[in-house]
Amino acid sequence: ASSLPRTRGTLLVRAWLNWCKMWKLLLLTFTVVIVVSPTFSLVCHGREKRYLTTLNGWAFIKVCAIGVMTNHNIKVTCESQGMRYPCFSPNSGGSDWTSGCIEYNPVYHTTITAIFKDVCDSSHYSGPYAYPHFCPPLDYTFVYYPDRRADDSSWGVRYLPHVWEALGLYGGDYHDKFALCAVDAAAVHILKCD
């Protein structure tokens, strides 16, 4: 309690100070939600990694990649974390594979499809194709895709159900998103929670 008398002037000053404190608190709360909450995060900030799944002895992890989402950036990001990188096609039998990429034999014909089927609801599966843009964990994830475009674009997916343009994003058009990396599952212990 203050020793100031309760005059009209001091009551107005106290009301003003309380109002200012309230707005500072609201602004701080809003800022924390924007910065900390992954729901509001528009870019990654260089530290994020998220385990997705393990297939055929490979643990697939999405890792924050800073810069344009080119194939070169995917490769550098994965290797800088001590990981390897998968190609769009899972093995040398696919046209969208190149030496340097990991090889494995999933049931499905693309790496993203195999991960989608293992991680997310498979009710959006039709024939040999799945729809990764129905899968929130794959949001803004890009995979190495050799010779896709002259700008070295990787292939990406955005979580936007019922929007076909969310599939096959050109990495050259995106910055600071997630690279799809892989590591030998037998050689690493991964915490499977965020």
Structural account:
This protein has 194 residues and is of the alpha+beta class. 25% of the residues lie in helices and 16% in strands. The protein is built from 3 helices and 6 strands. The chain has a 6-stranded mixed β-sheet, sandwiched between helices. β1 (49-55) and β2 form a beta hairpin. The radius of gyration is 23 Å and the shape is globular. The chain starts with 7 loop residues before the first helix and ends in a 10-residue tail after the last strand.
Topology (elements, then pairings):
Layout (H helix, E strand, L loop, with lengths): L7 H29 L12 E7 L2 E7 L6 H10 L30 H9 L21 E3 L11 E3 L9 E4 L7 E7 L10
Parallel strand pairs: 3-6
Antiparallel strand pairs: 1-2, 2-6, 3-4, 4-5
A few lines on this structure:
The protein is of the alpha+beta class and 194 residues long. The chain is built from 3 helices and 6 strands, in the order αββααββββ. The protein has helices at residues 8-36, 71-80, 111-119, and strands at residues 49-55, 58-64, 141-143, 155-157, 167-170, 178-184.
